[in-house]
Amino acid sequence: MSFRMAALLESLLQREVELNRALDWLRGRHECEENGQDLQVRKQEFVPFLLNFLRDQSSNSLTHGPATPAKTPSTSRPLRAQGTSSERRGNRSSTGQGSRSTSRIQLFSPAANTSQPGDNPNELDNTLNSSHGSHGLTGISQFSSPSFSSGWSPAPRYTPSERRSAQRHCLADFMTSPPETQPSPTAQQHRGRRRMGPFGASAASRQTGARSGQMEEGCRWDGAGRKGRVAVKMNEPVSPPTQVELNFNNLDDFPPVGAAHVSPIPAKPSRRINPTPVSTERPNSKPKSCFTSTPLSQPCSSSPSIPETFGPGPSAASPLCLQEERELLKKERSKLAQQTSSPAKPIPGVCTPTRPVRPGSKVTPDPQAPGPDPAKVTHAPELNLLAEIYCTCISENLVPCVFLEVFFVLQLLTTRSVAPSDTMEQDPPVPGGKTDALERDYLGNVHNCVYFAVQVLENQFTLLSHLDRCTLRLLAENERVGVFSPGLRDLLVQAQDSCTSKVIPDLHTFIHSVPFQPATDNRTNFSSDKAFHIFKKQRDIFYELLREWEDYHKEPGWEFEAALGNRVRAMVSQLTAAGNHCHFARLFQKQLVQMCKGPRVLGSPGDAPDADLLGMLGADSLGRLKRLQERLIQPQALSGPCPPPSFPGNQEFFRDFLQTASCCQLNQHLKDGLCQQLLQLNEVSILGPEATSDEGEEGVDGDMEQQDEKQRYSSVLVVAQVLAKFLGFISFLPYQTSEAPSREIQEAAVTLRSKSAPVLDVCAVLRSCIHRKRTVLTIPWLVEFLSMLDYTGPFLPSYRDAFGLLLQFYRRMRLGKVGGQFYLNQMLLVATLGWLFQIPVFPDDLFFSMDLKDELKELENHTSNQGLDNLPLVDEQLLYTCCPYLGEFRKLLAAFVSGSASKTGGLIRKITPTSAEPRGPPTTRSQQKIHLDLEQAFFHNQPPSLRRTVEFVAERIGSNCVKHIKATLVSELVRGGEKTLRDGLGSDCVNAAKLNDSICAQLCDAGMQALEKATRFCSENAPRAVRVLLPEETSQTVLTTAESITTRLATEKACSWLSSNITTLIKREWKSSFERVIKTLPSPTSKESLNTEEANRSLQPPKSSSGQETGSFCPPDCNNEAPLASDVIVEIKEVLSIAVGPRTEEEVFTVQQIFSLLDKVEQTLKSRKFMSPVAEQMLLRCTVLLASKLVSGELPVVSSTETNRRALPDLRPLLEEFVLIWTRTPSAPLTLLLSELTLTTMLHTNDVQRCNYLLLIKLLIEKGLLKEDEVGSRWMKLSELSWPVESVEKFKKLSLASPSTVPSVKHTDILQVSP
Amino acid sequence: MVFFSLVRMKICRAEYKTIAKFIEQLRPTRQCMKILKDRFPNHSQSTLLSIFSLEYQKRMKRTLVKHQDVVEDYFQRYRSEAKKRPSDPVLLELANEVDLSPSLLARLLVERFLEEQQGSVSSKQVLNSMLKEPSLIPDMQLAKHVEQCTINDCCYGPLVDCIKHAIGQEHEEILREKLRERNLSFLDENHLRAKGYDKTPDIILEVPIAVEGHIVHWIESKASFGDEQSHRTYLNEQFWSYWNRFGPGLVIYWYGFISELDCQRDRGILLKDCFPTDIVTLCHGSSHC
């Protein structure tokens, strides 16, 4: 099989097969039957072979060399997958090679495994090995095999025995190959490596030359790659490029393959990738994983390659025993290495361009390393040919992931590798016919790599040109591109300029809570008071958890389960008790959408600008800031173009919450809710231009509406993706296993699970979206959903069918065949699908093995022209939001630049100026931001319908406004222009073209009035419309605010469209009008000319739309002058406390002081503004107390000044004042004056005081505040006390008998009765 | 108005500690309050009183149990002292001596007294009313002493309770007044309860404002000093709950707060010690929107 592939490629390389024919064949024009060689080859078989071939070819260049940190994002893979049984299929490659081979394995090897487990050893490999020495085998011999080994009709070239011997030979070679077998390149490499920090490999292996070097390097490549890593890590954040010097020979650090040993390298959690639980729960998963998905930081197991160095023994002819053998050898090798190597040595393999500053091993290019030189390119014709075939595969979507290939090519472009040596420039003559065509070292040196890469890039320029501006710039500024293809560089520069990506201001700068809405949240929505109150608490607990997570989750050592687990479960169990699941599920889902709908969330974590900075800079600078930040952080961030599914940013919280809560009721409610919202979103109507603009009058307002539709589409898409991911997560959570189940178990599970209905009928959704041309909305979220599948999921009939459909769809989605407008739509689909095909969940063998019945044609046949797919909906921003991994290109290129800064210097310096230039005064900008924030905030606590109404009205008014302008201003202008034209043409010797230009210019000038008119139109109409649409009970302020927001939105919409389009509009209108006039005007009628002034007439000065100032109310608030009750009470309390003592001699009051206190009381009681009934009562009570203390003499009062301290003051005026107060505020508890306590006190006082007391009582009776009989009855009570009755009687009599004149001496006798 | 002095009432944590330390030795009497004012002349009287009150209450909460254990002893001591010198403030003196709030001591003894008289435990209500209206106490001498205690006590007692209540009410009203002055329409607690909200801040703005660049949906008025402990309690029981339902908001500690506590601004809880001046509104109706 692979032999045929090899033969085909070989014959192509040797020109035995016409290239064009092969290309046609690839493009599907005809089947290939070649040259009597009878090569009946299937594309599905050829493509993986080619890809692997290229990977193998380049594996040397991409990883070798002292000062050339490899560009492979797969460098320094973490543990590769530990050997599960299923690993065997990939073992050949995984053991020997790094990323290159890995990728291959991941991509293609599975087929071999699944279909022909025993067939693994690769014919070509063996062939090559046997055919000549070890040299030159680098690529293919060891690594290519697994990749193209496949289950398709194996046709081994050699008999088993041959194979075995070949293999043996090969292994022996590995082990012992003396330096001379691998002559030149190695020496240099080793020097370099040592300089950088010896590798710590055994001396023997170091000397084995290139090949062993390769093997050493192997550890940096991910053998089993991503999947292995992902599998190992559960919640462990992916560490940044580790700063730890790794000893690759340490078995602890790098356990042997198959040891199922979790990487002990402590993950440094500063950068988190949030591995999905899906993958994390399968620690020892199949080795298949996607190429380059692992962050560089992950150390990889060094060992896999090792056994072969050792293993001449029972050579690995049988793949079944290879495994064990390797284990053994690995250990041996490891032991050996431990002895020989110094653990502290830095490992060159870890050092990548992504980590430019690494103490001890700077990654700046070796100054002696030759730059790539077009003159030194060898095998150019073959490279051209390879490039062309390769490009065809890419263009035809024959590769599983287009962007993975682009990444690979960019890696080739930026390879740090020097040519192994100058002697390598010429291939050593290889004897022996055909095979050598494949064995030549096409990509063995940097010149060739760059040449090849540039060839491909040139070919794929259209694709490139749709990447973001920064990537384009980095490419354009890449000196290698400049050297190898100035033309490409120029194109890139141009493309950069036409790039119009705009960063829209991020309005979601702070997290919103889900607002309390009485309609859904108040008591009536709950079954019982208890449930209501429990939910009240639950809401608060939920946010408390959220806040705590926010605060701490980035701190090292923090774990969700440990920190919050118990609280989460306690809360959830209360849910169950109270039956509040549906309420909580709604809250949860809304909060999820709130927090995860921002574009930032989907980007790589760490992209979020600091909130403070944001506040300072305002929304405008966000883009710059973000870009700057990205450049600064990108050294750590390279994670390859196909990272495993993850829960970045805030999504992590929700995932962890669900995992921890582990509550089936909650999950069920969530599933229901997510599904419902998802399908609703999926059906959202997004209108095309035809549908909205009337009478085929396309363009103009259609354009503007298109803008809105586009925004709506992108917000819907982003939300749908989040919802779908969580729906998938919850749905497949029960089936997640840590390891792939065995085939039997899997089959059983498939049988079992295919009986029950899946949560979502993916196939139906898929068919319907294809049928209705809504793939651009549906497929991206379906991909998110499917990325959450468990191991068995893809084999269930429904999902398998869905994958099949998606594959067909992908194959048809050739980017080259798309019109410009929709290119980005397609690009989004190709990127997301490509990603899906690369992530671990996608079955290994599916891409190249599935027999696709072309169901799609039928589906597509029925389609109408209506549909989202034919609308230009995706823009660059959205593309990068949905596919953050596309940013990896930029990172890769930037890393290259920063690595070679010393040479180019350019980019680094540019950072400062671009980020530093301020735009406008910062205050206004932040004011603007506050204003926008306020508007967002305004809607927060209002019913959602308010926002919908406002947005809807604004949109309609804005749109109407444009129509209005068109119908009035524009048509008037054009009419005026026509007159001028007719007049002008009437006169002789007029150059019509010139006249046309001048009129057109005039009209355009006049057109600028449009903005004023639009403003007026919106402010006249928007408020009315909103007012009518909002419910009656809306409060006035809310209404006014809603009106003004609507007005602003509508005006903004209209004006922004007009300001950029009015000129075009006028020009277009004018053009048609001009043509009409010219046509119909041989006979110039120059009547009364409507001079252009009419057209130019200035409008009346813009009356600002909403002129009515809310009158600044004068705050006279005279009442506020009064002292506060609390103050007065405090003051009286002070006086009272002196009265009741203890006190000092100095603590006395003047009558005046008491007067002023009473005055305050009076004012306070009068003003009442801030008075509460409780305070009023207390205040009155205090006055009564005060009066009683006054008359009883407890309160030390002097008449006025110090002069007369001893003289007793006349209290009458004061008492009258008291009475006045109580008269005005009648509720004073005056009976206190008659209380036992007071009377007792009075009985102990002297005559003056008793007289004062009686005076007070008398005054009160006079005013009617106390009734005589009441006083009497109170006094009667005195008799109940232990006083002599007659004394009391007399007291009563006397006091009542002489109310007006205070009796002085005569009463004394009577009252001098002691109890 | 008295309350809107220009004196900023934010106090840094270290200074607060100094004040609190100083307060440890004080009793809740007007004499002690004077000492406190003299010691910290830079702070407003009401702020100092509020801090005193907070710290003193913490102290009482710590020690009350201890006192409850020896009520009998106190009662007997009071009895004998009152007999010896009936016109002296013996109860107040006892309170100061054992470092218990005079009002609290008075309450304990009244309770004890009633128990003795009636042979049964009196209800809280009865106790409260007697404390509020000492003449209801059957023993005139005790009544006199109780009155002396409640009137002198700066931190506990019916009078203080009422003052606190009044201050709280007044500041809510001041807040409403300020909002009306600024023409900011709002819903207050009563509106919100009627609508069935489960948690209600003092004020919900119908249209949010921005204060010093931060969005504000709701305002809570606190007529006390914001110290670490009370702020934490408020955060957990009130402020975050408001945030959870209505979004970011503003808390006004009219008597100041520990400045370091104002650290949740970006998160949506803003602290002020007065009605803010830097307010941005969605100036409805004006052309500058």
From TrEMBL, chain A:
Domain Codanin-1 C-terminal: start-end pairs:
869-982
Origin: domain of life: Eukaryota
- A Gene Ontology biological process term: chromatin organization
Pfam family membership, one: Codanin-1_C
Compositional bias ranges of the Low complexity kind: 92-104, 141-154
Where would one find coiled-coil regions in this protein? Answer: none
A Gene Ontology cellular component where this protein is annotated is: nucleus
Q: Where is the composition biased (Polar residues)?
A: 71-85, 111-133, 276-306, 1084-1111
Quick one: where's region Disordered? 58-222, 259-318, 331-375, 1084-1117
The protein, known as: Codanin 1
From TrEMBL, chain B:
Keyword Cell division attributed: no
Asked if the keyword Cytoplasm belongs to this entry, the reply reads yes
Question: Where found in the cell?
Answer: Cytoplasm; Nucleus
Which residues are in coiled coils?
none
List the keywords (alphabetical): Cytoplasm, Nucleus
* Pfam families given in the database record: TPD
GO BP, one annotated term:
erythrocyte differentiation
Q: Which GO terms describe its cellular component?
A: cytoplasm; nucleus
Record-linked InterPro entries:
CDIN1
Q: Which PANTHER family would you find in this protein's record?
A: CDAN1-INTERACTING NUCLEASE 1 (PTHR31661:SF1), SIMILAR TO CDNA SEQUENCE BC052040 (PTHR31661)
| Protein name (Swiss-Prot/TrEMBL) | CDAN1-interacting nuclease 1
Instruction: Name its species.
Output: Astyanax mexicanus
